[in-house]
């Protein structure tokens, strides 16, 4: 899934130089702390009975409150919180992409199928989910969801064309064989066409 347009949430930290000096902390220490600590990491697994339970250590920051309550280190047994070193706020990142639809600001969500998944089934699930969201009135006032592009539409058209061509081919073969060799041979030849196509696709 790729999202274009809209605003991404961002947490900003305005470090106070005087606080850094008084606490004897460098800016590099804070940067290294976030690079190493702001991660969700696997913690191994515990076998219980016939099952293995995987452990995941949740250490990623999700809002400014998580950062404010984080202890950077201790001095004489007293914790030094990150909030003691500057101002931490929830904000939005700089906009890097814009979306427009029908003259209004929009967020574009591109959904790609996995290599072995069925595009037609995926498209149906997405459309049904959108229908459920619209019927449940979950969207804020003035917001709408529309499908502006769907590759499954082209595939459905091709499948329908292929089906029509198969039936037309069977009819033509049946008619020619009926006029030349009789009903029995016409039926056998016509019945063999779908099976031949199926085996050719499998092969």
Description:
The chain is built from 6 helices and 10 strands. By secondary structure, it is of the alpha+beta class. The strands form 5 sheets. The chain has a two-stranded antiparallel ribbon with strand order 1-10. Helix 5 packs antiparallel against helix 6. It is elongated and about 105 Å long.
Question: What is the fold's blueprint, element by element?
Answer:
Elements (H helix, E strand, L loop, with lengths): L1 E3 L4 E7 L1 H7 L3 H11 L3 E8 L2 E7 L6 H5 L2 E5 L2 E4 L4 E7 L7 E2 L2 E2 L2 E3 L8 H17 L15 H30 L2 H20 L1
Antiparallel strand pairs: 1-10, 2-7, 3-4, 5-6, 8-9
Q: Indicate the proportion of strand residues.
A: 15-25%
Order of helices and strands: EEHHEEHEEEEEEHHH
The dominant shape is: elongated
Q: Rg, please? A: 31 Å
Termini separation comes to 33 Å
Q: How many beta strands in the DSSP annotation? A: 10
Specify the biggest β-sheet.
2 strands, antiparallel
Structural class by secondary-structure content: alpha+beta
> Oligomer, anyone?
single chain
How many helical stretches? 6
Weakly predicted, low-confidence segments:
none
User: What helical percentage do the residues reach?
Assistant: 40-55%
